[in-house]
Fold these 4 entries.
Entry 1:
Amino acid sequence: MVYLLHRFFGRDGREEADAMLERYSGDANHPRILGAFNERTPDWLAFFMFTYFTDRDGKFQLSALAESSFDPLARTTRFMLIEEAHHMFVVESGVSRIVPRTCEVMQMLGTDDPAWIRAAGAIDLPTIQRYLNFQYSVTIDLFGADHSSNAATFYSTGIKGRYEEDKRTDDHVLKDRTCPILGVENGELRSRDVSKLNALNEVLRDDFINDSIAGVGRWNRVIERAGYDFRLQVPHKAFHRKIGPLSATHVSPEGQLINEAAWKSREADWLPTTQDRAFVASLMGRMVEPGKFASWIAPPARGINNQPVNFEYIRFN
Ligand SMILES: [Fe+2]
């Protein structure tokens, strides 16, 4: 965006670009606007969850801009999407290697008891689920308010489109169309119809949700093949939200509206605790011996550029 402002909008553009960089980089006194980018990623599990969910947000925001009627913006973002695909690949070599290792340890020990799994240096599935719940919920907040007149303006003026606009069969104008969004009515979670133009953040959030569920399904097939009933799942859309009307509520991962006391009593089952984070941090050691892997992650199926796993990428001649 900064590049486009410099390239196409003269002096106004350059000033706006400076202000934009200030706003987005943030410091201790002025945290970045987008919450998920302020969360700490101190260990590899947090990092891989970040790349899986939060980088995928990047893919969707860029895909919406790739539909822009301002051609330089559309072309730049299409180009950036190529790099984003590589980020998506990184995660495939992350969580997709942690889950098999956990399953392997469960089979080896003949138990899924988290205490035993942890003692063997692997990350138990409930802890992986809590990390997933956290990263998923802070990421879906990034799509913005469920009901947004800005989103309508961006769309109607052609700055942004929807994800894969060309695959949609409606009129692409969306006047008089509606879309359901979630809210609380008489102490219950209910969806109500609002103008689709104002709900475009929600439309993009739903596209993101559908896309992220696919990978979780792949992790679950590994657990299923290992013979265990546990299934990882993305929590309900209203779980642990900090943006929009849902931020005023407490909702369980299953989508049950609950009170503050119930939330407090279950929070440690649903979100990573200080102890969880300390445990995962305790696993983060150096493993530099060729052919050996840390106790919490399986070897990759193949090396980078399809080389064997033990390929000598760096030679010290
Ligand atoms: Fe990315």
Entry 2:
Amino acid sequence: MKDKEYNALRRKIDHWAVRWKEELLPGWEIIFHYEREPLQNIEGNLLERSSGYTHFLWEYRSASISFNLLLMAERTDRQNENTVIHELCHCLVAELVTGDERPDGEAHMERVVTDIVTSLNWVRDAAIKGKLPKPLPSKSEQ
Ligand SMILES: [Zn+2]
């Protein structure tokens, strides 16, 4: 990956990362890393097929999120933005699974995070089309 291509993709990913971080996790301190090689998890294992990886310290509302731009260069903007949202959503649910002794804890987290991203996309698409459902009237308006 040439520097020009890397820098253009990095700017795009960083734009989404900063924007979505402010919307979803305004109280968190998150550092974003942009790699050109396979990501490693906190145990040092290579994540050859992962375009994003989040390491969080939920008790301090702090996280480090890494993106593999080599993999992301092969994907659409929408897929890459969803990856950004997906990694940020890991922070939202981190507290629920950290320290979980169940072997399927990670799988549950992945499923919940994926559904949250789908829900956020539905809201965004509805807002763009002006088709968000109207809120129910409050008691004072009835
Ligand atoms: Zn995930």
Entry 3:
Amino acid sequence: MIRLFGYRSSLSLIVWSLVGVALIVCFFSIVHQSDTRQSRIYFRHPSATRELEEIEEEHFRLPPPHKANPRAVKRRGPHRSPNVIDQYLEESSEIHALFFPDERTAVNPTKVGNDSMYFYPGRVWLDTDGHIIQAHGGGIMYDHITAKYYWYGENKDGPTYQAHPKGTHRVDIIGINCYSSKDLWSWTNEGIVLPGEPTNVTHDLHKSKVLERPKVIYNDRTGQYVMWMHIDDANYTKASLGVAVSSSPTGPFSYLYSFRPHGFQSRDMTIFKDDDGAAYLFYSSRDNTELHVSRLTKDYLNITAAMRRILIRRHREAPAVFKLERTYYMITSGCSGWAPNKALTHAADSIMGPWKTLGNPCVGGNRFFRLTTFLSQSTFVLPLSGLPGTFIFMADRWNPSNLRDSRYVWLPLFVGGLTDEPLNNSFGSPLWSRVSIYWHRKWRLPEDWKKGYV
Ligand SMILES: *[C@@H]1O[C@H](CO)[C@@H](O)[C@H](O)[C@H]1NC(C)=O
Ligand SMILES: *[C@@H]1O[C@H](CO)[C@@H](O)[C@H](O)[C@H]1NC(C)=O
Ligand SMILES: *[C@@H]1O[C@H](CO)[C@@H](O)[C@H](O)[C@H]1NC(C)=O
Ligand SMILES: *[C@@H]1O[C@H](CO)[C@@H](O)[C@H](O)[C@H]1NC(C)=O
Ligand SMILES: *[C@@H]1O[C@H](CO)[C@@H](O)[C@H](O)[C@H]1NC(C)=O
């Protein structure tokens, strides 16, 4: 009995010691993991960006809601009273005026004063000729050959109308505009680099159709600038991708063709060029219920066979993809037409997925702002080469009743802030840094943002 007990106890001693060793190993690996995470979190933070990482609150008093108009209630159904967003979208409302300040406050590079180089999210923004910048749903490419940035976006400088009573608000296709800059603040109009088609009604770019979210990347092998875009008809039933090329960043781009990737619908989309020269396409598919990611061919003119479905049943659109060290990040919006909604950040170790959702990146402002992405929708995230971990978040503040007056919301985005909610699956799977977009009423780029490019 005693011997047997002794045998048993030494056996259990061994078992427990093994468990103990395993726990210690596990503990150290977690400590090690969180150490690398800490070092990831704090590797950057030069004092240059400290000011931009301060939380800035915004206090505005929203006017009291209008009395519900019985017709509107009928239209919206009994369960929805007209909310602040509905009012904000009406051009004549007080709330609207608060977020679409008139041209007197325009950001104006032709007027040199103590405001120069400051970004004012939501204000009218003029180019170096003093004209309003028309580059909606856009993206920016840095061109090493000319050492300039090029901003491509939709020219929406036409009347807004509905093609039929239930149709979405639209502007006829005018074309894709390009602006160039060395400082990201004063932009020179390079003109329409891909024009709409005025007469041929069967052409993809006929003015009655839809041309959105142009993105351009440079192909080092072919020396061509390649533009990808969303091509649709007025009812958004074509749901296709378009491709155009040019030998110059300022065009003209020749339109090649449109197609449905792997036979799937494609609406909001973006492309991302990785450090190794491989480029990828992201698009909202299957009635915007999910995103698909696919690698482009080496010439960037087509997609390869491999495709992954990501964020399935999440209903996300307006993807903007960026990378820091070896982690890929993406900001997306929800799907609520022209109305703003809450952004989410996603991250992945491999660009083809799996992608995990981290949460809402918006910091500061107030709750209303954070739940509406500062009343805007993501379109692009631009890395600042001199400040690793620092990016510009570019978004559109849409004005659906007068789309040409839609505004730009550019804000600093940082990778590396602390997470505000515990991330799921921290055991065994990667611990990603928090992505934060900081609200600022006015802000400018810190010193050294350009290092490494010039
Ligand atoms: C400079 O700033 C002051 C105070 O902020 C302002 O009153 C003044 O009009 C500004 N001057 C110019 C030229 O913008
Ligand atoms: C109109 O556009 C279609 C599609 O791009 C093209 O096939 C056709 O040749 C064009 N017609 C004319 C007259 O240019
Ligand atoms: C769009 O839908 C409306 C209503 O269903 C229809 O009348 C119109 O012909 C459609 N337009 C196009 C371009 O498909
Ligand atoms: C793109 O690739 C697919 C699959 O290889 C092919 O069927 C299609 O013709 C290609 N498109 C173009 C425009 O080359
Ligand atoms: C983490 O998991 C919980 C429960 O499974 C879920 O409610 C929460 O939204 C998740 N958080 C994130 C950031 O995905």
Entry 4:
Amino acid sequence: MFNKKNLILFFIWFITILITLLWTFENSDKVQKLKDQIKNEKTDQKIEKVINTAYYSLNLKKFKIPVYSKYGGIEKIGEKIYYISGDLDFYLFQKNKKDQYSFTNLPIKKINNNKDKFVNKNKVIIGEKAWKFFGVKDVLIEEFKTFENKVLIISSLYYEEIKDCYNMSVYLTEIVNEDIFKISKWKKIFSSEMCLKIDLTKKTKFAAASSGGRIIKFNEDNVLLSIGDFYADGVNGPMLSQDLNNDYGKIIKININNKQHEVFSFGHRNPQGLYIDKDKNIFSSEHGPRGGDEINLIKKDKNYGWPYATYGTNYNSYNAYSKDLQKSNNKSKRVWPVDETNNTHDNYTKPIFSWGDTFGASNLIVYENEYFDKWKKNLIVSSLAAKKLARFVYDYENNSILYLENIIIDKRIRDIISLDNGNIVLLTDIGDDVADHAEIIMISKSEN
Ligand SMILES: [Ca+2]
């Protein structure tokens, strides 16, 4: 029979159930969100997949990034991976004591790039998606002899509120304590010359999709920064890449001590990939207009041709390979309007490789580890549109490409790095759905 104590317990149980039912009923959308969250955590936290390539079976482990943010980048110290989102959220991704990977939020002070002000002012014209393109483009963690500590450098768009224009800026801080990730005060070391207005290009589409922004260490005093043409290519707006009086469509050398900068190479479109190997070869990958993505070997003061020279076609000829165009007499659709070289790239520094079909080159590395020993010194280029890695065997003596293998990843890839243990790490792109976060993909050898 119920004694007094049991009755009280029953009453508490009954009230709890009642409150839960009422709360669930009142907050059905919140409940759905929680359910989705749990579902995502279960299914997307870590998905393993094995894919085959010519020499290796690869194990791909996918980890969903905690925030929904476009662009940003990944960097490493040894086997620790650092992720910075396009909105300046900073995370450490590493194995915990249980040998499982997890993200730790590092609450470092954010730089003030005025993103919110830019979006609020311009979203009426650009649309709600303005936030996607505005923000951090890359992150670099490196040692320089001129600094006592490791240095953290990021590239980001910066909005000048008074003039209502934006530029590409680079910020530097020292990592004073690596264990607790304490940093010194942020210093701005570069702002691109010529502040861009959103009506730079004819279309209202926000030009920052063609911004470049990759940073690499060049030597003990300098970094190289790639900057895109922001679609100001002589067709969709003024021509910036061939004009040495601005910093767009260029690779820029920046002295991180005295902040002086100079144009290193020019005639680029949207060079999102930049890598310097142990022998000081500098490779860059860039987006072409429609087809015509390139890998270039970067030499000082060279002109890489854009927009006068490209193997690509007119941006509007997305049906270049369709029967439609073959039947049509409108062959001008195929021609990049300001091409001077009849698609030969003559009189300009030619790429070492250019794609005919759509690739969407995002970043590249030279694989310099013993782990995938058959890939040693190969170029590995990541792609957005084609959702794959392109592995090239490059003949360093004759400067030519000998071999290409396509490795299908089936995700738009934004960034690629290799760790000290030889694993390769990719950062993928977000999807349109806010639940579709970017991912970190760890690539190792499959034991199968
Ligand atoms: Ca070129």
